[in-house]
Amino acid sequence: MAQAESTRRVFLIGFMGAGKTTVGRELARRRRARFVDLDDLIEQREGQTIAQIFASAGEQAFRRIESAVLLSLLQENAGGGDLVVALGGGAFIQPENRKTIKRAAGTTVLLQASLSELQRRCQNDESRRIRPLAKERDRFAELFASRQALYELAEFHVATENRSIEQVVNAIQEILSATRPEVKQ
Ligand code: S3P
Predict the structure, then answer these.
(1) 162: phi > 0 → left, psi -120 to 50 → alpha, else beta; which?
(2) Residue 101 CB neighbours (<10 A)
(3) Which of 92, 67, 77 is nearest to 149 (CA)?
(4) What is the value of pTM for the model shown?
(5) Which of 44, 60, 93, 181 is the most exposed place for a label (fewest CB within 10 A)?
(6) What domains are defined for the chain?
(7) Is 75 helix (H, G, I), strand (E, B) or coil?
(8) Rounded distance, CA 93 to CA 144, Å?
(9) Is residue 111 within 6 Å of ligand 1 at its C-beta?
(10) How many angstroms is it from 77 CA to the middle of ligand 1?
(11) Main-chain dihedrals φ then ψ at residue 155, nearest 5 degrees
(12) What is the tens place of the pLDDT at every residue in 57-94?
């Protein structure tokens, strides 16, 4: 993937309920960048909801689709154009996706929140309907614990609890203006 040097690709990482989509949309608006929610893109390309993909094909198949859609998004964007991407909660856990993001010289930002706050945001009927992995409280907690070390590989970590969307976006903007991505290839 050839990289246009001035292009900034920001990837928001974090567990279900961390606010990746809401924050990402506002961050993109402020930066006049294109916003992509990876789950929405998967649903558009597959013509099925995430829940339907999990139910009909299983999680492993979903992970393959997720990696392929991420790769094709970044291939399409290789010529340039600022991007803000809200990843699904499991995307950054896959080594292949971390490599894809690195090759695209992506800036990775982890949105942090405590388990109790994420449970509060995700353990309602609507969220459980949309998110297959939020259905069971115990599984949600186990997944949260098992993913922490890999989430922490994100370059920048931003706390979200007791902060408004605007405050979180401001914190990310400060980080972005103080840093430039390392351009690879
Ligand atoms: C998942 C998170 C979801 C979605 C899928 C799997 C996960 O995205 O990709 O249900 O493995 O954590 P959100 O983090 O946007 O809810």
Answers:
(1) left
(2) 22
(3) 92
(4) 0.94
(5) 60
(6) 12-183 (3.40.50.300)
(7) helix
(8) 11
(9) no
(10) 23
(11) -65, -40
(12) 999 999 999 999 999 999 999 999 999 999 999 999 99
Is the Cβ–Cβ distance between 91 and 64 less than 8 Å? no
Give CA–CA dist 82/84, Å, rounded.
7
Mean pLDDT in residue range 32-59: 98
Residue nearest atom 3 in ligand 1 by C-alpha distance: 88
> How many CB atoms are located within 10 Å of the residue 48 CB?
16
19 lines ligand 1 (CB under 6 A): no
Q: Whose CA is nearest to atom 12 of ligand 1?
A: 89
Query: Tokens in use for 119?
Result: 């449970």
Q: Residue 89 C-alpha to ligand 1 middle, in angstroms? A: 4
User: What is the distance between the alpha carbons of residues 162 and 121, in angstroms, rounded to a whole number?
Assistant: 13
**At 143, which helix (H) or strand (E)?**
helix 137-151
Residue 17 burial (CB < 10 Å; 0-12/13-18/19+)? buried
